[in-house]
């Protein structure tokens, strides 16, 4: 029973515009230092999976970026004809793996998270693999550090395994993104963890779950497998694939779910505000990546690779300069980034910068 | 009695950073279109003064910029050893001119103003020249369009000449920058004009005023003239020259002053906020020069030559991208620009951008 890393390389890269672009989303850029989030994800798995057991799933448009950044072994880059959220990508990877190794256990890993604490990470994965060996679909829950309303939460059920602070549990319930008061209650209770989007399971177990919960898609996948998983067969599969997340398609409905309480540091770097958690603070509560000067500025974040960003009397702003584009956003408005990019599409100069 | 244009090309260019830089202040940049403010100033005088009668005064560091932009005739670029405000520059130009033409009348013109209405401009200058012919020191007063507290004001005295709306007056008083309530009273009264910093006088008349009001400097200037105005003599003159404005040194103290009520449009483009007066408004009261996109932005000004500036949920900001530098300033904080640039001097990357 071998562990395979399945690193998901899709994603639109809108929330980190203009550092991320449609052709180069967040997972491919170096938010800190010179290593991309994808490369960091790949490196984290080296101790558990040698290169032949590290697979990557990406839409065709990202093939070159993935090949350049992590050099997958031949056959280990699975190309999707189009992005269709996580469920089809995971099913496709499971179908590939089970042909290769009927006992394969797969760790499904987004490529755009920041994780700290390598030993704890590997220990958490080993516990998850042990649970997966019993046929369970294992998710990772992150002990919340703030009452964030941007995440789904997993309510812990009875303990299944592990010891000390590193334990596996049944899942009492999945909870959608809560309101602020509910989030405070979740965090205080200690019974709720953030739903991380990282999973471990046997390939056959997740395919069985697809068969039960998404039978039509599973039938098409079976046909694709009978056709030898050719490019043409995969294109046909994706033509009718539902754009649906694995959480919604499988996790919230299956009954053999376990959650591992993660002992590692985790950040899904969901918006520019995440930089505050990873950059030292300057006077005024500002956080600067790259050259910056500030006078009378408070609670601002700047990011630039070259030149300088100068702030004068500003508050609560995110200022990013990348390539020829400059973003100036109020921190409370970052949730409307997608709308802003739609406006940019209308500009000739803006379209070049998307 | 011939008219000479004396165009003052000094100035630090701090308030339009980062479009203006220390090596290329505001008068040398193209705030609108492709012609610099200096070039526009030069062009405005072509109808009144042929090239041999258009002179330029500039610190040595700006020699190349002036030569490239307006190609002065030989001998018509007067180099100052250093910037020393307007009084020494004007005295130096007057000393040059009087050697050339004892009856010279000089129009002293800052090179960084925006002026509209060429016919009215020329008519105002002709009226000023007629007053200067009677030995008066003539300033131009601009009918105020708002109760601006950033300008000095000139109080009109009895009429001396002109007709209709174009008239020359004695000056009842010069008033320092007023407080807001006083400025409102000035504008309502109709008796106060903005002090424009443009002047017309005979070279001998202004030198006589220097002799009476700044006798020590005038003695040194006389010695400089006796030495043939060599570079060495001018350097010696400037070593002790007071850094003082012509308003403070001469205009506020002389008794033979006249003011011409200007009939032309005038803007000294004192800060980035001036762009609002010269750019069309976009929805939300924003003003954009160069490519820009905005969502939920109000009362902002952007300026860029390349790329795009994207605003998301911001208010009351000035955002300028020029070269590698980005400025993001609250509009109420622009008065602290000089302090900000001092901070930039402390940064290696910032110093390159000054």
UniProtKB/TrEMBL annotation, chains A, B:
Gene3D superfamilies: Spore Coat Polysaccharide Biosynthesis Protein SpsA, Chain A. It comes from the Bacteria. Residues 5-276 form the Nucleotidyl transferase domain. Coiled coil: none annotated. Its EC number is 2.7.7.13. One of its GO terms (molecular function) is GTP binding. InterPro entries: GMPP_N, ManC/GMP-like_b-helix, Mannose-6P_isomerase_type2, NTP_transferase_dom, Nucleotide-diphossugar_trans. It catalyses: alpha-D-mannose 1-phosphate + GTP + H(+) = GDP-alpha-D-mannose + diphosphate. Keywords: GTP-binding, Nucleotide-binding, Nucleotidyltransferase, Transferase. GO terms for biological process: GDP-mannose biosynthetic process. Residues 295-344 form the MannoseP isomerase/GMP-like beta-helix domain. Belongs to the mannose-6-phosphate isomerase type 2 family. This is mannose-1-phosphate guanylyltransferase. The lineage of its organism: Bacteria, Bacteria division WOR-3.
